[in-house]
Design goal:
This is Protein kinase domain-containing protein. The chain is an alpha+beta fold. Helix content is 38%, strand content 17%.
């Protein structure tokens, strides 16, 4: 048992060492590619939204209105039992890993239909990154607020607006899936589709995204690379493909499935049903 415990400790130490190495590599990348941000130059304003693991703030950086995303520290929420403390520590670590993954992914992407990444601060205990400020908010909030304004249960945006949103999302997915190392978003939903003041749409939130290995095409143009191991149950259930819910093997088609449900929601004004996938 002692040997087993020591072996387990060694594995954890190796994993922690690898994470530290990855973090240092990310800091080196930030410096060499000139997207490292000095934390003292950023003034945080009101909190725009929070999830279990992250918080998004309106901020100012060098006179520019931006959005800052950081880890939400659940350890400060008043939890005091030993088990709750351990769970909160685990949640913070997972949230930090997801944030660093999102920074690593966004720093390599540039496309008109993706929210613009401006840089990140990695030199303080609380890491954060900055993106452009999208004044129009997200599609989910836009749809909900207009249902209230029009006093209807099924608000639908004007046809030309809906079509513009569909095209923007399609272009973003075509870009992500067509990269040398394809990227699966894995959490495409109205909350992750942001709007400018003029209602132009851009895709955001790559915390759960998956960067795939490069495709190996055979003579017929078919991808001959072995199927990678994929995590099941990732994303938001309402927009989650059946194979993800069932913890089965899946591909970038899961983003297309979510996109279809989003188009249905926007075009009909009705949220998609929660079907049984079992």
């Amino acid at each position: 048992m002692k040997a087993l415990a020591e072996a387990g400790a060694n594995i954890l130490d190796e994993a922690a060492g690898q994470k530290n190495t990855d973090f240092e590599a990310l800091k080196t990348m930030a410096a060499s590619e000139h997207w490292s941000i000095i934390a003292s130059e950023v003034q945080f304003g009101k909190c725009l939204s929070t999830t279990i693991k992250s918080a998004v703030y309106l901020a100012t950086w060098r006179g520019l209105k931006v959005v800052a995303k950081t880890v939400k520290d659940v350890r400060a929420s008043g939890l005091n039992t030993r088990r709750q403390h351990q769970e909160s520590e685990s949640t913070v670590q997972i949230a930090r890993d997801e944030l660093l993954h999102e920074i690593r992914t966004l720093s390599t992407l540039r496309h008109p239909d993706l929210v613009l990444f401006l840089g990140a601060s990695l030199d303080t205990e609380t890491c954060f990154f900055l993106t452009e400020y999208m004044e129009g908010g997200d599609v989910e909030t836009y749809m909900r607020s207009n249902r209230v304004k029009t006093n209807t249960k099924e608000f639908k945006p004007p046809y030309h607006v809906s079509l513009s949103w569909f095209l923007s999302t399609a272009r973003a997915l075509a870009f992500l899936h067509g990269c040398a190392r394809p990227i699966i978003h894995r959490d495409l939903k109205p909350l992750n589709l942001l709007l400018t003041k003029g209602l132009d749409l851009k895709v955001t939130d790559f915390g759960l995204s998956k960067i795939m290995r490069p495709k190996l095409l055979d003579r017929s143009g078919t991808d001959a690379s072995p199927a990678p191991l994929m995590s099941g149950g990732v994303g938001t259930y309402r927009y989650m493909a059946p194979e993800v819910v069932r913890y089965e093997q899946y591909t970038d088609r899961i983003d297309i499935y979510a996109f279809a449900l989003i188009m249905y929601y926007i075009a009909s004004g009705r949220a998609c049903c929660m079907c049984s996938f079992c």
